[in-house]
Write a structure and sequence with these properties.
With 180 residues, this protein is mainly alpha-helical. It has eight helices and no strands. The longest helix is centred in the last third of the chain and has 23 residues, at 139-161.
Length: 180
């Protein structure tokens, strides 16, 4: 049961069809807000100085922690298939580890990005995590990671609060345990 009805369609001239997700259709009750949200989402991907794999790992970690099936499902598909970036960036086994918070098998930079994103999400960025993230990332990369974490924390909370239904063809968090 979704709490916010979805508009049937966002005009293609407002938002390209590939970006018309159920969250977008819920937000389109306020068209200007929807467009602003989608512009920020586009910016954290296409204007970012972070590589796609790193962005997707951070998004998956936040989505799993928030138990946002919608955001997890979208980004599980993006990260584990070549549909968006032209290559697989995260294996299913890695996605499972991210979901479960088992980060020790990841490279130090990747682990730091996910830990910083979660510290940001939990409002617990302290001097120790700041020193670690600053050792692995340039100032602009830290900014990009911070905005990414903020946006996807908000997206996860929006999909949960509005009870946005899963988009067609995406899998819930629990599906990562299913055979690939």
């Amino acid at each position: 049961m979704n709490r916010m009805t979805l508009v049937d369609k966002i005009p293609d001239e407002v938002l390209e069809p590939a970006l018309q997700t159920n969250l977008g259709r819920a937000l389109y009750h306020n068209p200007k807000l929807c467009v602003a949200f989608k512009a920020l989402a586009s910016g954290v991907h296409f204007e970012s100085h972070l590589e796609p794999r790193l962005r997707e790992l951070a998004i998956l970690r936040i989505s799993a922690e928030l138990r946002s099936d919608v955001e997890w499902g979208q980004h599980f598909r993006i990260a584990t298939t070549a549909a968006v970036y032209g290559k697989v960036n995260v294996s299913i086994a890695e996605a499972r580890d991210v979901r479960d918070g088992r980060l020790e098998g990841f490279a130090a930079r990747e682990r730091c990005a996910m830990e910083y994103a979660m510290a940001f999400e939990n409002n617990s960025v302290d001097d120790e995590i700041w020193a670690r993230v600053s050792a692995h990332f340039t100032p602009v990369e830290v900014l990009d990671l911070t905005v990414l974490a903020g946006l996807y924390g908000m997206a996860g909370r929006l999909t949960n609060a509005l009870a946005v239904p899963m988009d067609e063809g995406i899998l819930p968090i629990s599906a990562v345990d299913s055979p690939a």
